Amino acid sequence: MAENALNQLRYLVIGGSAGSLEVILDLVTHLPALPHAVVILVVHRKKDNDSILVDLLSYRTKLPVREVEDKETISPDTIYLAPPDYHLLIERADLFSLDISEKVHFSRPSIDVTFESVAEAFGDRVIGILLSGANADGAVGMAKIRKAGGYTIVQDPATADVGYMPQQALDLTPVDSILPAAEIPGLLEKLLRIQ
Amino acid sequence: MIQDEDLNLLLSELSHRYGYDFTNYARASLKRRVNRLLAVDRFASFAELLYKVKNDPDYLPHVVEQLTVNVTEMFRDPSLFRTLREQVLPVLATHPLIRVWHAGCSTGEEVYSLAIMLEEANLLHKSLLYATDINPTVIENIRRGMFPIGNIRQYTENYLQSGGRKDFSSYYQAQYEWAKFDERLRANTIVATHNLVSDRSFNEFQLILCRNVLIYFDKELQDKALTLFDNSLEKLGFLVLGSKENLRFSPIAASYTQLENKEKVWRKMR
Ligand SMILES: C[S@@+](CC[C@H](N)C(=O)[O-])C[C@H]1O[C@@H](n2cnc3c(N)ncnc32)[C@H](O)[C@@H]1O
């Protein structure tokens, strides 16, 4: 894709752990039409259930859903899922890469790792969303997204299935919005319309 | 995160001074490795690391070890090992001598896994397993055959899922925090350093496994390594890659057919 077309893309990165599956499925169902957006999902899950998640997501959206393979091209209007047991990184503006190095917060894929990589690559064109979970993963990543000029949304811990993970992020960094899951799609619609 | 210019300085130092060429490694993970090295060894700045690399040759092995990712597992991706057991070993069985190359084998978990399967298929006695890696430190462990006991539960599960029917504990002895695997499993294994960037083909094989190594290379270097494998593989031999790797867009793709079950096993057709 041409350089300037790439420069217009927005990057929606979503991190979820325990208790986030329903929220993610619902979010995907209600994703506003996303011209010029790339969606990247990092979800902690058991290795065995992998292809199921792709199926569950595909069932709810017209956008193509891809579990990322090594050096896969990043295309707009696509939902990408970090594969189980690999960290997902941005290699170049138009290319993913995978990394099997040490777990971070007992997790591979780690939300922090992807959030940090996305923040570094795409700066203020990133929207980061951190959902329910029982893990400290994602907090540092949210801070990095914010520091790089991105927009940060945390699921309201009080309404999350497991509030620990979003609370960890809130304890570490100020964020732009704290919302119950049901209100996130509406906000996204506004954010993606503005530009 | 370390800057590109700094990374280039370090890479050119490693390449020119020591002959380790990481320039065509995938940048995103390489930067994470350098960052990790800076943190693990408590360097106050990148300049200090660079100074150390320039002036202390004894530090080099540690740098190589830290820049490469050595994570591995026994019977990792059990369904792949099941495919090897059910579809590949029966073909290999027809050869008088079976030659296998584990390229980028790290500490040897994959090598021992295959040796176990070969033994169970009664093929180990006529097999030669070449186990190579860029990193001399990790391959030392293959001779020792010792893996952390804490991982054994996972490995046993993997083994069973891969179609193993024996008592997995019959292959090792527990020694404090280690599981020491039976020496007969490595009797036919040849261990050597081999750098996929700079070293050549050294034999012809019927089976080459190179899993989770190509993810650390850029496309150009991936193509180079795949061509090296192609030159080292007999016609009708098998090439095995990691679960998220592919040779689809490489120059050798046209000569290969992937197994029907979509495991990352390709057969060289011409
Ligand atoms: C993540 S481990 C994979 C181990 C094993 N193949 C597996 O899949 O479980 C990657 C290995 O590739 C090795 N490696 C990296 N660059 C290499 C090179 N240029 N030549 C040979 N081995 C290399 C590293 O030292 C490391 O042991």
Automatic annotation (TrEMBL), chain A:
GO terms under cellular component: cytoplasm
Residue numbers annotated as active site: 17, 44, 137
Keywords of this entry: Chemotaxis, Hydrolase
Cross-referenced InterPro entries: CheB_C (IPR035909), Sig_transdc_resp-reg_Me-estase (IPR000673)
Entry's Gene Ontology molecular function annotations: phosphorelay response regulator activity; protein-glutamate methylesterase activity
Catalytic activity from the UniProt record: [protein]-L-glutamate 5-O-methyl ester + H2O = L-glutamyl-[protein] + methanol + H(+)
GO biological process, one term: chemotaxis
Top-level EC class: hydrolase
Enzyme Commission numbers on file: 3.1.1.61
Stretches assigned to the CheB-type methylesterase domain: 5-195
The protein's name in its UniProt record: protein-glutamate methylesterase
TrEMBL record, chain B:
UniProt cross-references to InterPro entries, sorted A to Z: Bact_Chemotaxis_MeTrfase (IPR050903), CheR_C (IPR022642), CheR_MeTrfase (IPR000780), CheR_N (IPR022641), SAM-dependent_MTases_sf (IPR029063)
UniProt cross-references to PROSITE patterns, sorted A to Z: CHER (PS50123)
Domain annotation CheR-type methyltransferase: ranges: 1-247
Molecular function (Gene Ontology), one example: S-adenosylmethionine-dependent methyltransferase activity
PANTHER family: CHEMOTAXIS PROTEIN (PTHR24422:SF8), CHEMOTAXIS PROTEIN METHYLTRANSFERASE (PTHR24422)
Protein name (Swiss-Prot/TrEMBL): Chemotaxis protein CheR
Organism lineage string: Bacteria, Pseudomonadati, Bacteroidota, Cytophagia, Cytophagales
